[in-house]
Every structure is written in structure tokens, then in C-alpha cells.
Design brief:
five-stranded mixed β-sheet, 16 strands, about 500 residues, disordered N terminus
Length: about 500
């Protein structure tokens, strides 16, 4: 089972941040300069700010770029636990980690993302190379396979990607964000790797307990077959897919209007497409479409439906078909998908009169892309691939909102022991003891004062959730013991110095 760990350990609140005074942008510029720096600081930077203010120069704006954010310690700790939970699932399924540069050659990325290509961050000429920031982790993975002539691999990759999108921070949509990808590359029997990718999505969403969800599945070959029998020219298949992909955001009437008005499809073709793409179900729908007078005569669609039926048989063996929906409206707008595609969405049932739950956001997606590696190979040699990307930012946004609503506080450090002293002139004793703990691999801290008061040291333990305090005073030094305090129960016991490390380890065992 995946575990995020407790949102609040022993901590009752987070450590207070140092107070630097208000950052006042309005009013007198001199008052801003004075409040920006701690009182008494009259260094070069202070004089520079005062000079800029006196000269009427514009002071620097302190903000992150649009679509990006900082992460405070509590947010960083939550993200780390979430990423650890996802990665542990990837490892459980036998994947190895890789990493690739955040920069790619521009020509590596263009022509792979359909309408998403306009969101690629392109950079100025860098010494003769036209570069871009990576848009996702899939295309760099395909480039990696082709460049290193790898024909079989199961890998995961967790890294930041960049898109010039319109941010929606409350929904976890940023211009800089993490992706967590799991992919299986190689020639294998049909639908076995695809079923495992769906099983991984099911495991992660179930164990994170995000709420009810459904995993929508479809196949690009089925969609292409639908377009074909509805009279759509092959050159319009990908633009039509990009439009169909908007069905989870806008109603069919608007999608139809775009297909006719912008994509140039006939109203009759759009209406026929609408009859198909509004269907969803399970094995029964697959059987129905296999008997469809038109689709059953389309070779591409028939292949896709056959594989979809096989996929559902494997998903039944995995015991997860209760969360799977064969949905013909699922298109996934990226150009490189060639077969099975899927997307996981969280559901919300707020209104009893609704027959079906509402979707509140996609949290995972992926599919099969058998031709992408061949696009980078001089001889066009293909390496079949299928993979899934977990929408870590969307999930993080949900968990962050829940944590804030609950009022619980998350531990931001992993310190196990605070080394404390009750009297003055014992800094050397503290430093010797903490060094012994560090050398033994125990996570330990001490306060950075020569003679801190014992009450402040114990309060620090309670504020930050440190479970144990190792107290060494004059009497303990004389007796060759250390007083070990359980912070939660406030019980103390004298432990012989030579047995302290073993006793700490025993108490910290899960």
C-alpha cells in the first residue's frame, strides 16, 4: 500500500519564520527601503536601495514568474512524500530511473504535440544550437531510446517540464511543473504492458485516497475508424482528435461548431461523429461496436476493438474493471499516440439529481506510441512503447487544499533527537554528544546558542515534532549517563552513555 505518512506527527505548529518587517510598496520610497532591511543594517545594499529611491529609480519587483511558485517547507515536505509514494509504486513494478536534460534541440520537440506545439518554450540561438525547454518527458525518452539504440526498457522519470500555457494555479496548472512518467518500451504480446500501466494508475489513485475516480480508455485506431466511416479525410484525423479532446471541457454543441466552422468538416460528418463519441461503457459496448455495420468493416477500427476487448479481459484478471470506462470521447490531443489511450479523472457527486458523477479534473493520462522512437531513427526502426504520466501537480493541489482545510500541521524535518543541556558552559558536551549521534546515522539537532535555556530547547522539540531529547547536564556527565526524554509523554530515564545509541534506535523502530 502506498502511504503518504501522517500529515501531522508530534508537531502542534510549524516553526515561526523570522520577521523582517512589512514589504511596503506604497507610499514613501524611503520608508520601503527602511522596512526592507532589518533595523541597524547599513551595508552597501542598503545604501544602493536608498540611492535608487532618492533618484526615482524603479525598485525591483519581488515575485515569481507567471505560472510558477515557491514551495515553503511544509509544501516541500508534502510534495516529497507524494513523489515518494508514486515512485515506490513505479519501483514495485520493476522500473529503473533515468534522467534527461531539461534542454532539448528544438527540432527534437517540434511536430510531436499537435496544437500543443505552440506552448513550447523556445530559446534564442545558443552558440549555433536552436534549443527549447522540454514540453514533456515522453519525447525525450523516445530520443534517448533511439540515440542509444535501446529496444527494450521499463523506466520511470520524475522531473520538471515547461509549457507556455495559461496558468490555473488553483487547479494545479502551471507553466513549470513536475511530471511522473512510467513507460514500457519493447516488442511484447498485445495489451499486457498496456494493462499493467492501467493497473499502476489504479494502485496510485486508490492508495492515495483522493476520492472516487474513473479511468477512461479508448484507442486511436477506433477513433480513426470512426472518422473514416463518417467521411472525414485522413489529413483531418489529427485536427479532429484535438477538437474531440475538448469534450471534457465544453459541450458537444461547441465541439461540433468548431469541427464545422474551424476544421472544415461537413455538418453531416460532424453529426455522425457525435453519434459515436458520446458513447461509453464496458465490454458490452465493445461487443456492440464489433457488430456495428460500418465499424466492423473498417480494418483499423476492428483491430482497435479487438485489442480493447483483450485489454478488458486482462483488466478483469487484475480486478480493476469497476473503475474502467470505455469512452469514445477520449481523444488525447498529442500527435504521437497510435493505439490505446487512457485518462484518469476524479469524480464528485454533489447533487443527488445528477445521474452520473461530475468530473473534477484529470489526474493521470497516457497511451501507446509505437511510432515515436522511429521518428528519431535514421532507418525509421520502431520501438513500440506504452506509458502513463501521473498528474502530480493536480494531486498535490488537492492534498494541499485538504491539509489547509483540516488545520493539521505537517512536519517539515525528520529530526529524531534534540541534544539539550540544562546548565551553562556545556556547549562542548552538547557538541561531542551530537557528533556521536550523527556518526551513528541518527538525525539530530541542537540549538545554536552557547547557553540556551532548557525550557526553550524542550519547546523547540514540541514545536517541530522532534520525538526525543537527549539531555546532558553536570550530574549526567559525572554519572556517565544521558537523560533521554520522550517529548510526547515527558517521561525521562537515565541511559548509560555507551547504550544510548541502541536505546534511541529501539525507541525509533516503527
Amino acid at each position: 500500500m502506498l502511504r503518504l505518512g501522517p500529515f501531522a506527527a508530534a508537531a502542534r505548529c510549524l516553526p515561526a519564520l523570522p520577521h523582517l518587517g512589512p514589504l511596503c510598496l506604497a507610499g514613501n520610497r524611503g520608508s520601503f527601503a527602511r522596512s526592507w532591511l532589518p533595523a541597524g543594517d547599513r551595508g552597501a545594499l542598503y545604501r544602493q536601495v536608498r540611492a535608487a529611491a532618492a533618484g526615482g529609480e524603479r525598485l525591483p519587483v519581488l515575485k515569481t514568474p507567471k505560472g510558477t511558485r515557491d514551495h515553503a517547507p511544509a509544501q516541500a515536505a508534502l510534495r516529497e512524500r507524494l513523489l515518494s509514494a508514486v515512485v515506490s509504486c513505479f519501483k514495485r513494478h520493476g522500473a529503473a530511473a533515468i534522467d534527461t536534460p531539461v534542454l532539448e534541440l528544438r527540432e527534437t520537440l517540434v511536430g510531436k504535440y499537435g496544437e500543443g506545439a505552440k506552448l513550447i518554450y523556445e530559446l534564442k540561438d545558443q552558440g549555433g544550437e536552436l534549443l527549447a525547454l522540454r514540453y514533456d518527458l515522453t519525447v525525450p525518452f523516445a530520443r534517448y531510446l533511439a540515440m542509444n539504440k535501446i529496444t527494450k526498457m521499463k523506466r520511470y522519470h520524475v522531473a520538471k517540464v515547461y509549457r507556455r500555457d495559461n496558468p490555473a494555479t488553483t487547479r494545479g496548472r502551471y507553466r513549470e511543473f513536475y511530471q511522473c512518467d512510467f513507460d514500457i518500451a519493447g516488442q511484447f504480446d498485445p495489451m499486457i504492458p498496456d494493462a499493467e500501466c492501467l493497473k499502476i494508475v489504479h494502485e496510485i489513485l486508490s492508495d492515495l485516497q483522493l476520492g472516487d475516480f474513473v479511468i477512461k480508455v479508448n484507442d486511436r485506431r477506433i477513433l480513426n475508424g470512426v472518422f473514416d466511416v463518417c467521411g472525414v479525410p485522413e489529413s483531418q484525423f489529427i485536427p479532429a482528435c484535438c477538437t474531440i479532446d475538448k469534450l471534457d471541457k465544453i459541450p458537444w454543441e461547441e465541439v461540433r461548431s468548431e469541427m464545422v466552422g474551424e476544421k472544415g468538416l461537413s455538418p453531416e460528418a460532424a453529426d455522425r461523429i457525435g453519434e459515436y463519441v458520446q458513447l461509453h461503457g464496458g465490454l458490452d459496448l465493445i461487443e456492440q461496436l464489433l457488430q456495428d455495420p460500418q465499424l466492423s468493416q473498417n480494418k483499423v477500427a476492428k483491430e482497435g476493438l479487438g485489442d480493447m476487448k483483450l485489454l478488458f479481459e486482462y483488466l478483469t484478471l487484475f480486478g480493476i474493471t469497476g473503475k474502467i470506462s470505455f469512452d469514445l470521447s477520449l481523444a488525447r490531443g498529442l500527435d504521437y499516440y497510435t493505439g490505446v489511450i487512457f485518462e484518469a479523472v476524479l469524480l464528485q457527486q454533489d447533487h443527488e439529481h445528477l445521474e452520473e458523477p461530475l468530473s473534477v479534473g484529470s489526474v493521470a493520462g497516457g497511451g501507446r506510441y509505437d511510432g515515436l522512437v522511429g521518428m528519431f531513427d535514421a532507418k525509421g526502426r520502431k520501438v513500440p512503447c506504452v506509458g502513463v504520466s501521473i498528474g502530480i501537480e493536480r494531486i498535490f493541489s488537492i492534498l494541499e487544499q485538504r491539509l489547509e482545510a483540516s488545520g493539521e500541521k505537517l512536519r517539515t524535518t525528520e529530526t529524531q533527537v534534540l541534544v539539550a543541556t540544562p546548565q551553562k558552559h556545556l556547549l562542548a558536551a552538547r557538541m561531542k554528544l551530537i557528533s556521536e549521534l550523527w556518526d551513528a546515522g541518527i538525525k539530530a539537532e541542537m540549538l545554536y546558542k552557547k547557553d540556551p535555556k532548557l525550557l526553550k530547547q524542550l519547546q523547540y522539540c514540541e514545536d517541530t515534532g522532534i520525538p526525543l531529547a537527549a539531555i546532558v547536564g553536570e550530574q549526567e556527565l559525572a554519572d556517565g549517563v544521558v537523560k533521554l526524554r520522550d517529548v510526547a509523554t515527558r517521561k525521562e530515564v537515565d541511559i548509560p552513555r555507551e547504550k544510548l545509541i541502541d536505546e534511541i534506535r529501539r525507541r525509533l523502530e516503527p
